[in-house]
Amino acid sequence: MEPISEPPAPEYFENAFPRGKFPRYDWVNRPVGLPAEVWSTETTHRDGQQGGLPLSTESSLRIYDILCAFTSGSGAIRQAEFFVYRDSDRAALQGALDRYKSGAPIEPTTWIRAARKDVVLIKTLGVRETGMLASASDFHTFHKFTPAGRRSAAQAYLDAVQMTLDLGIRPRLHLEDATRAPMDFIQAFVEQVLAIAQPFGESLRPKIRVCDTMGLGLPYDDVALPRSIPRIFRVLNTLGLKPADLEFHPHNDTWLIVANCLAAIRAGCGVINGTCLGKGERTGNAPLEGVLLHLIGMGYFSANPPDFTALNELTELYAEMHEPVPPKYPLFGRDAHRTRAGVHADGLNKFWWMYAPFDVPRLLGRPLEVSLTKDSGLSGLIFLIRQHRGLELQKSDPRLIALHAGLMAEFDLGRQTSMEWEELESRLEDEGL
Known about the structure:
Blueprint: E1 39-42, H1 44-50, H2 57-71, E2 77-82, H3 87-101, E3 107-113, H4 116-122, E4 129-135, H5 138-141, H6 150-166, E5 170-176, H7 183-197, E6 207-212, H8 229-237, E7 246-250, H9 257-266, E8 271-274, H10 288-298, H11 311-320, E9 338-339, H12 342-350, H13 360-364, E10 369-370, H14 377-389, H15 398-412, H16 421-428
Helix pairs in contact: 2-3, 2-11, 4-6, 6-7, 12-14
């Protein structure tokens, strides 16, 4: 039996957990199909609004400005898509286009149905690219169209694509419900789109967005189509599509949204479409801050990363709009970095890296926090007092013991809510602190 080793110094695996940076992928074998360049596109003004965000022109532009501050010069978010069906949406689009022409980093695009009557709506708006809804599964093509079926649907889409190209606008085909769609239909349709676009050259080269509309995709190679996200993208790669031509747009209905995004990238997809803070229909869209954290870990944006601290303003805006981020939402929820356990608070006091996934205050602009409960012990009090008052107290300090005894008495009498700093602060003077 091998003895337990005792190193001369602690091993912190700093290749994977570098100080002052997000966790890094310490590759054993870097995936062969990983694109040289990856980025994201944003759909808050379309899918976020569709999912319940009450967007006015003013709030739409404020969100756009925050997203521009987040991505800054990193190239992490390159496009945002807007509805065009209401005056307020068109006004927001125009405001974003004006900002883009003045140097804002996110290009505004539109979202329409792949129908000729919708193409008419965008021909004078000044956009260079539009998304076009092209439902791909038989759930849609046999129940939306008259006459029903794949050919009728495809012909309507192709007519709209032709009209879009004739207007000099690049089409981005959104293959709705692709994870329940027959691959032979997707292949044939994409091939026909590429054939129609071929005479128009590279500037109007179509993009293909794979939509996991009901969140049914799986991140595995060893499951069959249509649910395998890697298999879908590998098939599309055989049609001559480059990583920059391919987007993935998933939903979170079955909890696999970030895993599916990473599987898509590993299979050769160059672009992830989602929303910052995960807003969207039903369970939400891909949370771009979570996806981008992993992309940074993979080595992307190393020279000029996005500024995650800018998203704190977005959490404040959503609270003002009565659409707050859930308290335990990863990274940016109110309680995402808050512990209520005494053993964790004790760890934070002794070596705060023990209970922090990375340098949260520096990278996210959010504090590590402790809430006082019946389980947070003396260590919770020590942490809060040090954090807010800069005082170093020992567990044997009689003032601390008295303060803790008073708190425990409240919990013994039935208190169920935790105590936050604001309430604790008013009690410190009573104990001479």
